[in-house]
Amino acid sequence: DVITEKFNTLNIFNLAPFSIENIKELAEKSGINTELFLDTINRQNFLGFCAKPITCELAIKLFDNNELIGISQKEFWQKGVLLLCEETDSNVKKIFSVNKIYTRDEIATCAYWISLCLTFNLKKYIWPKNISKMPDDCISIEELIKDSFTLDIIRVTLSRGLFTPLGNGKIKLYHSNYR
């Protein structure tokens, strides 16, 4: 936001969606049965998902784990969220130090909780720093703490692949490859 304010002529580019050839190339590089993968995503109407890098990678991981064939789009997203909960973003991990281990399901439930808090409070970002310096478009970690959603599980959840630090103190709910 600061950059676009200072450089109002700055062009913003969005990456074009993957073509079938891009998807095929990514599938080949991952070592899966490319033809069966392409047939599966086509039959199950997942081609649109595979047009974006992060969801294409999720589809390939699910296919490689024999979890893609026969699932619904809702199940695709649920399984994708669980896979992202297993990833750890090293940039966020540096911010938080937690010794307790949580299950993938506990982390996914907390991620859903954080996304609901952001949505219902009309906020875009999570603010892990001093609340007195928190921007208006953020929700503090303290505001996320409730019942089983302790400071520790919130910190662990924020260190996973679903969240990305933006470098200005803010953390956003999206995968770092999906900018």
Question: How are the secondary structure elements laid out?
Answer:
Blueprint: H1 2-6, H2 20-30, H3 34-43, H4 53-64, H5 73-86, H6 90-93, H7 104-120, E1 125-127, E2 138-140, H8 141-144, H9 151-158, E3 164-165, E4 171-172
Parallel strand pairs: 1-2
Antiparallel strand pairs: 1-4, 3-4
Helix pairs in contact: 2-3, 4-5, 5-7, 7-9
What do you see in this structure?
The chain is 47% helix and 6% strand. Helix 5 (73-86) packs across helix 7. Strands 2-1-4-3 form a four-stranded mixed beta sheet. A hairpin with a 5-residue loop joins strand 3 (164-165) and strand 4. With 179 residues, the chain is mainly alpha-helical.
Question: How would you briefly describe this protein structure?
Answer:
By secondary structure, the chain is mainly α. It has helices spanning 2-6, 20-30, 34-43, 53-64, 73-86, 90-93, 104-120, 141-144, 151-158, and strands spanning 125-127, 138-140, 164-165, 171-172.
Q: What structural class do you assign from the helix and strand content? A: mainly alpha
Order of helices and strands: HHHHHHHEEHHEE
In angstroms, what is the radius of gyration? 18 Å
Total helix count?
A: 9
Largest sheet: 4 strands, mixed
The portion of residues assigned to helices is: 40-55%
Total count of strands: 4
Order of strands, main sheet, comes to 2-1-4-3
Mean pLDDT: 81
- Catalogue the unreliable spans: none
Provide key terms for this protein:
elongated, 4-stranded mixed β-sheet, mainly alpha, 179 residues
